[in-house]
Amino acid sequence: MYEGAIQDLIDELGRLPGVGPKSAQRIAFHVLSADPADVTRLATALRRVKELVRFCTVCYNVAESEQCRVCRDPRRSEEVLCVVEEPKDVVAIERTGEFRGRYHVLGGAINPLEGVGPDNLRIRELLARLGTGSVRELILATDPNTEGEATATYLALMVKPMGIAVTRLASGLPVGGDLEYADEITLGRAFEGRRAV
Amino acid sequence: MYVRRLELVDFRSYERVGVDLEPGGNVLVGPNGVGKTNLVEALGYVATLASHRVATDAPLVRAGAATAVLRCAIVHDGRELLVELEIAPGRANRARLNRSPARRARDVLGALRLVLFAPEDLELVRGDPAERRRYLDDLLVTRMPRYAAVRADYERVVKQRNALLRTSYLARKTSGGRGRAARADAEGPAEGGGDLSTLAVWDTHLARHGADLLAGRLELVAALGPHVTKAYDAVAAGRGAASIAYRPSVELPDPVPDRSALEGALSAALAESRPAEIDRGMTLVGPHRDELTLTLGTLPARGYASHGESWSYALALRLAAYDLLRADGVEPVLILDDVFAELDSGRRERLAELVAGASQLLVTCAVADDVPNALRGARYEVSDGQVSRAD
C-alpha cells in the first residue's frame, strides 16, 4: 500500500477493464514521472470524453454533435441498415470500407442472465426508423454467440413482416489462414455454411 | 496408441516422479493410499483436462507448491508426441506440444485417447440422470469434437431461457396473481417486449441446438447398445442381459426421424409445455431432461440392481465406450483402476479375454495375484511418492 494520492490513482486505474493491480501500479508511477503537460492533456481528455461525447440521436453511435459522422454523410445509402451491438462494432465494419449504408447501435444483446431484454436495447427506436419506409435491407451484424444469435432471431421475427429483406453476416473460416489452424468449432460452422462454387 | 512415459512434478502426493510404460499390459501394484490412482488421474487429466475425482484443480497441486506439471510422451502410429501441461489453480493452464507452446490448453485434447474405469463410476448406474447424460456427451465429444460446441451452445441457451422464465416467475409472484409476465405473453412481442416476449426466440434456438445434440446422442446410443450388452455379459455373473435405451423427454415417432424432424418435435413439445414452464419458471423439455435408461433383464438397474450388478454395469459402460472407439479405428489407452479385486476368478478371466489385445492397458491393484496371467506385462511397485519397475 502506498500513501494518499498515488494509492488513489492505483485504485482507480485498477477498476478499468483489463488492468490488473500490477499494471495499475506501473501506469501510476509512469504518470508520476511524466511531464506535467502530458498529464494535463490526459486529464483533459478524460474529462472531455464525459462532457462532450453524446449518442447520435438517429443511430445511437457515439457522436460529438446531434448526429454521428455516418448519419450526417449524405452519400451514405438510406436503403441498407446494419444493426450492431456496440459502437466499436461500427468502427470494425467501417474499417472494411465495404459498407456504404447506415448503422443502428443496439447497445448490447438480449441476455436474460444479465437482465437485458428487448426493452433495454434500442429496438423500439430501430422499428421506428424502419417504419419510415426508406430501408430495403436490414443486415444483422450482432455477435456470433448465443446472445447475439438470439437477438438476430428476435429482430428477424419482428422485421420480416414489414416486408424488409433481412440478412445475417456469414460465419466461417478466417481469410488468409490455414485450414489446419482453425478450431473445430469454427471449422464445423464453416462446413455447415458451405456453398456451391 | 500408448503412453511411453509419464512424468509428474508437484502433482498430488508426488514431488517428482517419472514412469516408463510399455505397450500392452502394465500393472501398478501397491498398498492402499500410496498414490496409484494419482497416476491414473494424471493420465486422465492429460486426456480430458479435468480430473475424474474432483471438480476443481486446487487439490491436484501438491500442498506447498504453486503449480503442478504433467509431462506425457504418447506414441501414436509410430510417432511420438510430447504433451506438457502446467496446472495453476485459479489461472489458465498452459500447454506445450512437442516443446512448442499451444495457443490454448484445449489444443492438447485428442492427443491422448483414453478410457478410464474407476470406482467413482458406480455413480453412472446409481447416480442422477445427469451422470449418464455426461457419460454420453463426453463420449460423443471424444468421437466427434464438433459436439463440444453443440453441447456448449445448448447449455448456454437453456441457461438463458431458464433465467428468462425465472425472472418472469419472480416478477409474477411479487406482483401477485396474474401479473405482467403472463399478460405480455398473451399479447405478444408487439406490446414492446414484456418479460416473456423473447421466449419464442429462445424456443427456436433451443430446438435447433437441442435437435443437433439429440440426433448425436440417439445415434451414439444405437451404436453403443450392442457393445454394452456384450461387455456386461462378459463381466457379470450372468443373471439377465443388460440393455440401454435413450429415453427423451419429448415423445419421438418411431423410427427416429432426421435432424429437422427432431427440431420440429422439440418445437412442438416446447409449445405444449409452455404454460407449465411459465408456471414453474424453468425449461421442462429438451435433451437436458433426457435419460439413458439402463435395464437388467426386465428391471431398471437403478434401484433394482445389487451392488455387484451395478458395479459390473458401470464397468460394462466403460468397456463399451472402449469397444466403440476401437471400432471407429482409434486405439485408446484403457485404464482399469482397482477392478480385479471386485471380481471372482471366472469373471477375471473373461474380462482379461475382453481387453486382451489392447494397445495399452494400465491396471492398478493392491495384490498382484488378483490380475490374471494373460494381462501381466510390465509390473511396477508404487510406494510413497515413488514408482519403480519390479520385474
Furnish the topology, listing elements before pairings:
The complex is a heterodimer of chains A (197) and B (391).
Chain A: H1 4-14, H2 21-33, H3 36-52, E1 54-55, E2 62-63, H4 69-72, E3 80-84, H5 87-96, E4 102-105, H6 123-131, E5 137-140, H7 146-159, E6 165-168, H8 184-192
Parallel strand pairs in A: 3-4, 3-5, 5-6
Antiparallel strand pairs in A: 1-2
Helix pairs in contact in A: 1-2
Chain B: E1 2-11, E2 14-20, E3 24-29, H1 36-48, E4 68-76, E5 79-87, E6 94-97, E7 100-101, E8 114-117, H2 123-126, H3 129-143, H4 146-175, H5 180-187, H6 199-235, E9 242-247, H7 259-280, E10 291-296, E11 299-300, H8 301-304, H9 307-327, E12 333-337, H10 345-355, E13 360-365, E14 378-383, E15 386-389
Parallel strand pairs in B: 3-13, 3-14, 8-12, 12-13
Antiparallel strand pairs in B: 1-2, 1-4, 4-5, 5-6, 6-7, 9-10, 10-11, 14-15
Helix pairs in contact in B: 3-6, 4-6, 4-7, 6-7, 6-9
Function (chain B): The RecF protein is involved in DNA metabolism; it is required for DNA replication and normal SOS inducibility. RecF binds preferentially to single-stranded, linear DNA. It also seems to bind ATP.
Organism (chain B): Plantactinospora mayteni
Family (chain B): Belongs to the RecF family.
